């Protein structure tokens, strides 16, 4: 059986070439290393002290690459352009899609505050394990809350709902107004692309059900009931991925995607699910 990928992500600092070998004592299964560096590290500064520090970081990154090469471990760099939060989100989401079954570990022993905070914020979304090697002697585990939602988004219908809400939000951003989408709109949109995830096997003595006639362009699959749709929205709401409006409006119940919902969608959705999901994943 082929060994699962273990991706070790490092925030670039002056001492990472010392902390990196120490990490292998706790993490001997590392099979790929990615160094996240601030874009400023690769810029020339007129201030001698700043330029010296940046030069030391560049040397440390090069040393990590040499160590990786000596161990036959692939090593690459990701240059983070401000704002760090958005840039780190996009890079990690892309890495997660390329290696969906990988184990992720992080070492935030170096790098800027903005870079480290962004990596720390997104580590739970990859099921990542956080380590710190500030004394360069041993990698110490940093406890993180469990916020994994990958199993939830295995269901393609959840991906589609989040994609619709994200598309609705982006469209509204160009024409300022309400950022909410109605339940009626979302139900009608999902109805034609609904993917049943559980089907009941018919018994020989079950009565025949009346045929369902679909309009042109609709998928001839099992009909999406309002009860099933309500269950989808309740699950997404309870997971904190969408918000439900408590106000009474002429269009009925309204929904919008949350920040956590967008992160979950970009990290755990599969572009092969549908053209809409693919389009929204590529809208970074």
Can you put this structure into words, describing what you see?
- By secondary structure, the chain is α/β, with parallel strands linked by helices.
- It folds into two domains: 6-142, SSO1389-like (Rossmann fold), CATH 3.40.50.10640; 152-208 and 218-281, Arc Repressor Mutant, subunit A (Orthogonal Bundle).
- It is 41% helix and 14% strand.
- It contains nine helices and nine strands.
- The strands form two sheets. A six-stranded mixed β-sheet has the order 3-2-1-4-5-6, sandwiched between helices. A three-stranded antiparallel β-sheet has the order 7-9-8.
- Helix 3 (84-98) packs parallel to helix 8 (259-268).
- The longest helix has 23 residues, at 48-70.
- The radius of gyration is 23 Å and the shape is elongated.
Query: How many helices?
Result: 9
Which structural class is indicated by helix and strand composition? Answer: alpha/beta
Ends: how far apart? 36 Å
CATH class of the largest domain: Alpha Beta
Could you tell me the number of beta strands?
Answer: 9
> Ranges with pLDDT <50 over ≥5 residues?
208-220
Give the SSE string.
EHEHEHEHEEHEHHEEHH
Instruction: Return the average pLDDT rounded to an integer.
Output: 86
Task: Give the fraction of residues assigned to helices.
Answer: 40-55%
The CATH architecture designation of the largest domain is 3-Layer(aba) Sandwich
Instruction: Give a quick account of the main beta sheet: strands, pairing sense, barrel closure.
Output: 6 strands, mixed
Q: Please state how the strands of the largest beta sheet are arranged side by side.
A: 3-2-1-4-5-6
**Which outline best applies?**
elongated
Rg, rounded, reads 23 Å
Strand content: 5-15%
Please identify which CATH superfamily of the largest domain we are dealing with.
SSO1389-like
How many domain units?
A: 2
